[in-house]
Amino acid sequence: MNQNKFDRYFVDEERPILGEGRKGKHRRRLDIVVECSIFQPRLEYIFEAKRLRKNSCPIGEYTGEDGLQRFINGIYASECPEAAMIAYIQSDDCDRWEKQLKGKFDKDSENILKIKQKLQRVIVIEDIPYEWLSEHERATGKPILIHHIFLDCSGSVFLRMRSRSPSEISV
What we know:
By secondary structure, the chain is α/β, with parallel strands linked by helices.
């Protein structure tokens, strides 16, 4: 029997967070949780996703209290050594948003982001060219590594894909 190396992992989306006095649809929700069933307690990897779109979804929402700061403040992944932020780029290009993200890190004079290590370019998946890693302090004393993943979801990426032949598109 050929066992798939991912058959012990489960993906959940919009998982509600218990506590905080919120009930029903007012509870905060984790965008994506990958859970491993091999170990007890079960290991989880948490992703928070944010849209980035000029004039409606600025970089401040990505780094703000409903984004990156949920990890830093221990609201999300408080026991996890690392987590990930996903940005769905819906306007402009990833280079513009990269500059804005780096600008937020550079201008964090009040230490809201509790940066221990600034953004470092990493390659986790070769087909995703916009990936970084940063490290942040938390009130618990346990730092957290954050993977930042920018996905180009603008119309231009689909136009580029349309112009390629099916053999050029890798899945």
